[in-house]
Design a protein that fits this description.
- The chain has two domains: about 90 residues, Elongation Factor Tu (Ef-tu), domain 3 (Beta Barrel), CATH 2.40.30.10; about 160 residues, Rossmann fold (3-Layer(aba) Sandwich).
- The model has no long low-confidence stretch (mean pLDDT about 95).
- A hairpin with a 2-residue loop joins strand 3 and strand 4.
- The protein is an alpha/beta fold.
- The strands form two sheets. A six-stranded antiparallel beta sheet has the order 4-3-6-1-2-5. A five-stranded parallel beta sheet has the order 9-8-7-10-11, with helices on both faces.
- The protein contains eight helices and eleven strands.
- The protein binds adenosine-2'-5'-diphosphate (A2P).
- The site of adenosine-2'-5'-diphosphate has 14 residues, from strand 8, helix 6 and helix 8.
Length: about 260
């Protein structure tokens, strides 16, 4: 039996020459937890070529959303970048991942720390009502090089404000969206690691410093950023969690891009 199902592309939007999002149909038997990733790909020269992709839609949604970079000459993304409505993509049958609510112990605040397309699993989680039922405050932060790369996150949060299931939580102020750039001027600028270290990130939103008693964190993005945050949380006494042993922070080890 094939390890994947064939799904149909139902939506495509290009954000920059390097970033695009698309949606596909979802097999009725496909189950996953918000925040997980799955193998996704195409038949290329008669052979399946699949890579790990975070599912950017919540577990209750009828469709599947993805957010991707295009790598010039990349075997999969350079072909995937040309997909059109009605095209077929392959979606693996076994979703996995550590960025799930069940890998964290209860707390007051949930931080979602992303760079670039690392926002994708959080696009899933901020549309899941369980996120707001478990945490009083949810802080989504995305850092990109340029302002244009933040647009997906802005569109996501704006659309989620009107969402029938979770819009009321956002309208009540339960979600903070921090969008920052590192290579162009913007309201919020600089690497998040540095904004956290100098305290400016917390001051911007009137938040207390990270505290393992009250705060939980999920990290997804550039490897260098994940490594730095992992150390920062460990130094502050946070314990890494997993579904079998929930803790105070988790990070995505398989993320590339
Ligand atoms: P910077 O522009 O200072 O490198 P990339 O496009 O290379 O994947 O990076 C995405 C974003 O992640 C960029 O804004 C980049 O900042 C930032 N970044 C890269 N490494 C780190 C790190 N170690 N800590 C925090 N942010 C980082």
């Amino acid at each position: 039996m094939a390890a994947y199902t064939e799904e149909t592309v139902t939506f495509v939007k290009h954000y920059t020459d390097r970033l695009f999002t698309f949606s596909t149909t979802r097999d009725r038997g496909f189950r996953f937890r918000s925040g997980e990733f799955v193998m996704l790909g195409l038949m290329i020269d008669g052979k399946p070529l699949l890579r790990a992709y975070s599912i950017a839609s919540p577990e209750w949604d009828e469709k599947l959303d993805f957010y991707s970079i295009k790598v010039a000459g990349g075997p999969l993304t350079s072909v995937l970048a040309d997909i059109k409505l009605g095209d077929k993509v392959l979606v693996g049958k076994k979703p996995v991942g550590t960025l799930v609510l069940d890998a964290l112990t209860p707390g007051k605040r949930l931080y979602m720390l992303a760079t670039g397309t690392g926002i994708a699993p959080f696009a899933s989680l901020i549309r899941d009502p369980n996120t707001y039922e478990r945490y009083e405050q949810v802080i989504l932060t995305q850092t990109c090089r340029q302002v244009a790369e933040l647009q997906y996150g802005y569109d996501l949060v704006r659309d989620t404000l009107d969402d029938l299931l979770v819009g009321e939580y956002l309208r009540a102020g339960q979600l903070i969206h921090d969008a920052a750039t590192t290579r162009e001027p913007h309201t919020h600028a600089g690497r998040l690691t540095e904004r956290v270290a100098d305290g400016s990130f917390f001051k911007d939103y009137g938040l207390p410093e990270f505290n393992p008693e009250t705060d939980r964190a999920m990290i997804c993005g550039s490897l260098a950023m994940s490594v730095e945050f992992k150390k920062m949380f460990e130094d502050r006494g946070f314990i890494e969690g997993s579904v079998s042993a929930p803790g105070q922070y988790v990070y995505e080890k398989s993320f590339v891009g």
